[in-house]
């Protein structure tokens, strides 16, 4: 496991425990970075019962589809650090 993978896992654990509300656009960034970082190369189809919410999710994925998996992990870590004021090492 690489250092980046370890930091990403730590960031995910921290993000999963967050309880403070975040703006919807930030939540969509978290979503997109996570999905891109953990995607195995397949197309992703958001699940859920709300077509509108799924549309926002797809839009977020399209906005960041240029990122590699490693770049998405870095972006995810940066978001966690920004919104928790924690440095992930």
Chain-wise SSE layout:
Layout: H1 3-16, H2 24-38, H3 51-63, H4 69-84
Mean pLDDT: 91
Query: Which fold does the CATH topology refer to?
Result: Acyl-CoA Binding Protein
Number of domains: 1
CATH domain class: Mainly Alpha
Instruction: State the end-to-end CA separation.
Output: 14 Å
Shape: globular
Instruction: Find the count of extended strands (DSSP E, 2+ residues).
Output: 0
State the order of secondary-structure elements, H for helix, E for strand: HHHH
What percent of residues adopt helix (DSSP H or I)?
Answer: 55-70%
Which second-level CATH architecture applies?
Answer: Up-down Bundle
Query: In percent, how much strand structure appears in the residues?
Result: under 5%
- Rg, nearest Å: 13 Å
Stretches where pLDDT is under 50 for at least 5 consecutive residues are: none
Q: How is the biggest beta sheet arranged? A: none
Derived structural class: mainly alpha
The number of helical elements comes to 4
Overview of the structural elements:
- Helix 2 crosses helix 3 and helix 2 packs antiparallel against helix 4.
- It is built from four helices and no strands.
- The longest helix is centred in the C-terminal third of the chain and has 16 residues.
- 65% of the residues lie in helices and 0% in strands.
- It has a single domain, classed as Acyl-CoA Binding Protein (Up-down Bundle), CATH 1.20.80.10.
- The two termini are 14 Å apart.
- By secondary structure, the protein is mostly helical.
